[in-house]
């Protein structure tokens, strides 16, 4: 009998480290485990949402897919925080940038996440919560970028419930408001962390741009993804 009461993560608490890297794509979780973790052990494969635990620089770290969108991220983050005993989650995601001076291959660290999702209104709170990164994880992510010599941007991102937004003016309005990029999970992760009294930060790699039409070659895409992964792993060491 597994300790998680969940139908979606089948593991015992001791199978999972205190800090978990979460890419949207479970195959990116497998890639990170195989490329960076020593002796990775698969702890979850329900719905193919692959989760592994291994060691990085001698410390125990887990990596597991979140799926796409706030509902999927919230389900897994909630269970990891409240049933599995995880303390800190780092989203390792891709994003589309809004300002012309944020280029493909660069990293955005999400200080906060504006959202068109109902997630921030669902809690029994006298105010609407503001999805915000944990300050210590945010500053650790910045320091990791600086130590590794990886360029970065820090600011407010958009977590959208839709990839194909029927409001065609949405990216223009986001850009006018000074938002840095669009993705689909960070607001959910930050609200789950806050309401579970845990920690989170999103470290995003720019895979597309909304206004410049820049594109990455296959080599550039891999390099930028590995920058994001290495910054995330270095940040995770502080919470292992
Ligand atoms: O690359 P991931 O982490 O999945 O993130 C981005 O990519 C997906 C859309 O293609 C959404 O999940 C979005 O947030
Ligand atoms: O434009 C983009 C790129 C990546 N992920 C998104 O959600 N949107």
From TrEMBL:
Its EC number is 2.4.2.3. GO terms for molecular function: purine-nucleoside phosphorylase activity. Keywords: Glycosyltransferase, Transferase. It comes from the Bacteria. It catalyses: uridine + phosphate = alpha-D-ribose 1-phosphate + uracil. The keyword Transcription regulation does not apply. Residues 18-226 form the Nucleoside phosphorylase domain. NCBIfam families: deoD (TIGR00107), PRK05819.1 (NF004489). This is Uridine phosphorylase. It comes from Olsenella absiana. The gene is deoD.
């Amino acid at each position: 009998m597994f300790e998680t009461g969940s139908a979606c993560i089948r593991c015992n608490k001791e199978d999972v480290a205190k800090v978990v890297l979460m890419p949207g794509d479970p195959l990116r979780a497998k890639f990170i485990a195989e490329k960076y973790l020593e002796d990775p052990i698969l702890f979850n494969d329900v719905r193919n949402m692959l989760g592994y635990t291994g060691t990085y620089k001698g410390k125990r770290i887990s990596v597991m897919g979140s799926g796409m969108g706030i509902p999927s991220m919230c389900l897994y983050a909630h269970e990891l925080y409240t049933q599995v005993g995880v303390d800190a989650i780092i989203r390792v995601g891709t994003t589309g940038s809004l300002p012309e001076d944020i280029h493909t291959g660069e990293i955005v660290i999400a200080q906060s996440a504006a959202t068109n999702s109902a997630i921030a209104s669902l809690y029994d709170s006298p105010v609407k919560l503001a999805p915000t990164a944990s300050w210590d994880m945010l500053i650790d992510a910045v320091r990791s970028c600086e130590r590794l010599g990886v360029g970065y941007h820090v600011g407010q991102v958009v977590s959208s419930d839709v990839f194909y937004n029927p409001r065609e003016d949405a990216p223009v309005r986001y850009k006018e408001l000074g938002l840095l990029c669009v993705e689909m999970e960070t607001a959910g992760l930050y609200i789950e962390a806050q309401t579970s009294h845990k920690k989170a930060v999103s470290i995003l790699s720019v895979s597309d741009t909304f206004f410049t039409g820049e594109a990455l070659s296959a080599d550039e895409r891999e390099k930028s993804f590995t920058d994001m992964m290495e910054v995330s792993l270095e940040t995770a060491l502080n919470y292992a």
